């Protein structure tokens, strides 16, 4: 079986290296969101991962990537044999409809973020935002990305528009998943409640347990990990896909 990994918002394929190192015998293909949005059609994601349509797959999704994986598994149940949700966005997180893709507010936000490129701010602030997200979202606070990769990924205005597009598309996906929810494939739900994730951990865990119960899956609580589980507990993700 081939695994397809869908990163979360603002996440790069390179930062999932620690997970891949722990499963040398597994065929895990990480989607690059800078090339293919994680909320793209499953056929597009398959093609991006180089997986033929007739091949059974397992899906791993972190954060909004988890929501995208969940939509794929529920809308095309015959394709997905196993599902691993890693601190996944919940179907209840439907955002604000006035900002959905294609709305006037969405176009204003995208235009504003594009205009920032002319100021040079993305080049200056992109790396700062990346470092801050790792400090807040990780217990270990260790960023595996080199400075060169961070500059290339986060220092251009098109990336900032991409991040907004990921967020807005995830709201639509959440709404769709809410209508599709049913028992799914063999599922594992990893839930981070450590570090910066301690705030609101009880309600977050309750929501994840409810999701797992609907899917018929099992929950593993990670008290020693914050939201960026692939940085804090890559071994937990590796164990779930073995």
Topology of this structure?
Layout: E1 2-6, H1 17-21, E2 27-30, H2 42-49, E3 57-62, H3 64-75, E4 80-86, H4 104-116, H5 121-137, H6 147-154, H7 157-180, E5 186-192, H8 201-215, E6 218-222, H9 229-232, H10 234-241
Parallel strand pairs: 1-2, 1-3, 3-4, 4-5, 5-6
Helix pairs in contact: 3-7, 4-7, 5-6
Can I get a quick summary?
With 242 residues, this protein is α/β, with parallel strands linked by helices. The chain is built from ten helices and six strands.
Description:
The chain is an alpha/beta fold. It folds into two domains: 2-96 and 172-241, 3-Layer(aba) Sandwich (Rossmann fold); 98-160, no CATH class. Helices cover 47% and strands 14% of the residues. Helix 1 links the parallel strand 1 (2-6) and strand 2 (27-30). The mean pLDDT is 94.
């Amino acid at each position: 079986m081939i695994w397809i990994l869908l990163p979360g918002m603002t996440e790069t394929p390179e930062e999932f290296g620690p997970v891949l190192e722990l499963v040398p015998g597994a065929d895990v293909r990480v989607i690059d969101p800078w090339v293919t949005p994680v909320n793209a059609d499953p056929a597009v994601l398959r093609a991006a991962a180089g997986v033929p349509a007739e091949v059974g797959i397992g899906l791993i999704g972190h954060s909004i990537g988890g929501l995208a994986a969940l939509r794929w598994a529920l809308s095309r149940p015959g394709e997905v044999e196993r599902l691993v949700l890693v601190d996944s966005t919940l179907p209840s997180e439907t955002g604000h409809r006035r900002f959905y893709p294609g709305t006037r507010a969405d176009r204003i936000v995208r235009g504003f973020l594009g205009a920032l490129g002319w100021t040079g701010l993305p080049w200056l602030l992109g790396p700062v935002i990346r470092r801050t997200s790792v400090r807040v979202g990780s217990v270990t606070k260790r960023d595996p990305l080199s400075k060169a990769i961070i500059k290339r990924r986060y220092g251009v205005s098109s990336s900032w528009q991409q991040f907004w597009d990921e967020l807005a598309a995830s709201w639509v996906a959440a709404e769709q998943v809410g209508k599709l929810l049913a028992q799914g494939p063999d599922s594992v739900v990893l839930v981070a409640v450590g570090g910066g994730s301690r705030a609101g951990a009880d309600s977050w865990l309750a929501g994840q347990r409810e999701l797992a119960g609907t899917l018929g899956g099992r929950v593993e609580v990670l008290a020693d990990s914050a939201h960026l589980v692939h940085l804090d507990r890559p071994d937990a993700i590796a164990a779930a896909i073995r």
